[in-house]
Amino acid sequence: MNYFKYLICFFCIFLVSSCDSYLDVNDDPNRATAVEPDPLFVSVINDYSTNRVIDLGPALMSASQLMSGGGSLGAGVFTDPERYIFSIFTTGNTWRAYYRGIQKNLALAIGLAEENGDVWTEAQCRIFRSFTYYSTTMLWENVPFSQAVDLDLETRTLRTQNPVFDPQEQILRGIIAELDLALDLIGQGEFGGVQSGDLIYKGNMENWAKFARSLRFRVLMTLANRDGSVASEIANMIAAGGMISSNAENAEFPFFSVPNNQNPFWRTLDAFAGGSNFFYFAGETMVELMKSKNDPRVSVYFQPYPGGGSPAEVTGAPPGVTNIGFNPWVLSTAPPGTSGTNQLVRPNSPDVLFSYSEQALLEAEAHARGFGGGGLSAADQQLRNGITAAMLNHGISQEEIDSYLSNEVPDLTTLSQADAIKIIAEELWVDCVIRPLEGFTHWRRSNIPELNVPDGAITAGLAYRLPYPPDELAANTNAPAVIPTDQKMWFQD
């Protein structure tokens, strides 16, 4: 129980500091404040990734069965979200980070960039605004969008205190329009841009354009579940290219092995478990899927429980079970006092916002579904590109990759369309093991792999959303009624 107490204390301290760290620029409208784009942008991307990695990440990872809370072994901290009991701190802090911090500061930065004619800074901010809105609607479905951040640049205050909650379809199409505007701005020429504050691409606007196109592609693939008419747009994007096409172009927020700059997911273990992993357990579904394919990433993803007693063969915890009866394996973690190598949990693990492996696997899916024009032959090639990129990211040797592709990955042209799509979806889910929002979203698009309702779940079905923060429901007169977490979102077919 000591670990439980320590972790709760950590969460409380972290949540308070997180709230204080949001950059509320120039609260006093009578005091002049010079605002530069670089520190604003650093604040935005730092707030997003810090929230995503530790406020939202562990809860969503266990809820979506990418990992397990480990039942009583994990002191119950993540068993609650595994059973769909979401803390108001998780939901509230994420909502506040997105709206009061990130979107407000992006609106300010965009307004200032427009005043200064700094089209590249405006483009960077619009791309990240689109990325954040996509995250928001994938967590809650209908959210403030069209009236969300109507900012008065003179007073730095919001004109609309009770924004409407827009339908998800409108939000997704609005994101595409925003990305199109950003790409147009990038194409206008070399004007400014965030440089030192751009920790993602260091001011490389060619990579920002690729990120924007890849994000646009992801949104279209989400819309495709409900609107088949976007198939032609998807095909056009594949033909045109210009999206993320190598691991070197991945959109990543960096963390470092120096104090106060480490990945918060790892820092929790370092601060409250002596650097050993007593909190983040392997999930049964993930482990069994990987073992069934002799996936070489098994040895990179997982390690025996540091307290001993794990089975000789990697074994995951069943979802929601409190008294498991054995000590499951855990997510691989850098040894105490080191930076590690290829473990999932390291002090310098970046927050991967968009990867080449995801892009290739999405294109494989598009071809397999008949959107890309290349059929199962093109789908097979992109599947192999995606698997290779994913495994290289985790330090798997080319020899092991080639063996896996030869012996475990069938030629998609010999399969039915449904079987081909299933293999692609499984690889995409496995690749998202510590990218829970992407894993959660792609699973909801495909319903692959098949998940079971966790033991002790408070719902009759699987969870498809987060509950709205109670504070937002109480404060905003335009907020919707409470929606059950096992109710599907609009984009799900």
The level of helicity is 40-55%
> Overall 3D geometry?
globular
Rg: 22 Å
Average predicted local confidence, pLDDT: 92
Strand order of the largest sheet: 1-7
Structural class: mainly alpha
Q: What fraction strand?
A: under 5%
CATH domain class name of the largest domain: Mainly Alpha
Description of the structure:
By secondary structure, the chain is mainly alpha-helical. It has two domains: 1-24 and 35-243 and 258-280 and 459-493, Serine Threonine Protein Phosphatase 5, Tetratricopeptide repeat, CATH 1.25.40.390; 353-434. Helix content is 50%, strand content 5%. It contains 17 helices and ten strands. It has helices at 2-21, 37-63, 79-82, 88-116, 119-140, 168-186, 205-223, 231-240, 264-272, 284-292, 298-301, 356-368, 375-393, 398-407, 417-431, 436-446, 470-475; strands spanning 67-68, 143-144, 151-152, 157-158, 165-166, 251-253, 281-282, 302-303, 330-331, 351-354. The chain has a two-stranded antiparallel sheet. A two-stranded antiparallel ribbon has the order 2-5. The protein is globular and about 65 Å long. The two termini are 42 Å apart.
Write the layout of secondary structure elements.
Layout (H helix, E strand, L loop, with lengths): L1 H20 L15 H27 L3 E2 L10 H4 L5 H29 L2 H22 L2 E2 L6 E2 L4 E2 L6 E2 L1 H19 L18 H19 L7 H10 L10 E3 L10 H9 L8 E2 L1 H9 L5 H4 E2 L26 E2 L19 E4 L1 H13 L6 H19 L4 H10 L9 H15 L4 H11 L23 H6 L18
Antiparallel strand pairs: 1-7, 2-5, 3-4, 6-10, 8-9
